[in-house]
Amino acid sequence: MSEWLVLATVVAATGAFALWWRAHDGKVRAVDDRFTGEELAAIGAPPERRLLVAFTAPSCAPCTMARRVLEEVAGDRDDVAVRAADVGDHLDLARAHGVLRTPTTFALEVDGTVLGRVAGVPTAADVHALLDAGAVPDSSRAA
Question: Dihedral angle at the C-alpha atoms of 119, 82, 129, 106, nearest 10 degrees?
Fold first, then answer.
């Protein structure tokens, strides 16, 4: 009987985690963070443009999807550029900004101030809303 109880507990915990993951994956979050001038230079940030920085890995399929979304957004806007930062090549930078998975995207102001971050594949609408608002919109906040 105790085996069934353990199995039921594991299934319930797995289901709860899956629901939590789905609710948070790809959602824009507010963070109190800033990229320094040296960090911006290391990822090749263009001057006088806001930046979407995607931390990626070579064999990451969601990274490819995220990159397409970010390039679509940048294509719609004259003031935004996209840069991919391979986690293997920029490990110190990833650690400094708490990147725990790929893709993780940061939306940055020209001065390096982080407007918001997304772990997973964002939607173009969420990225546009973030850039338009200059901060995480209330409807996109994830707990």
Answer: 40
pLDDT means over runs of 10, the chain (143 residues): 74 66 66 91 90 94 94 94 95 94 94 92 92 63 41
> Which pTM does this prediction carry?
0.78
Residue 50 lies inside a defined structural domain of this protein: yes
Q: What is the CATH number of the domain that holds 52?
A: 3.40.30.10
- Note whether residue 89 is domain-resident: yes
Q: CB of 141 within 8 A of CB of 29?
A: yes
Domain that holds residue 51: 27-140
- Position 77 in a domain: yes
Expressed in percent and rounded to 5, the helix, strand and coil fractions of the chain are 45, 20, 35
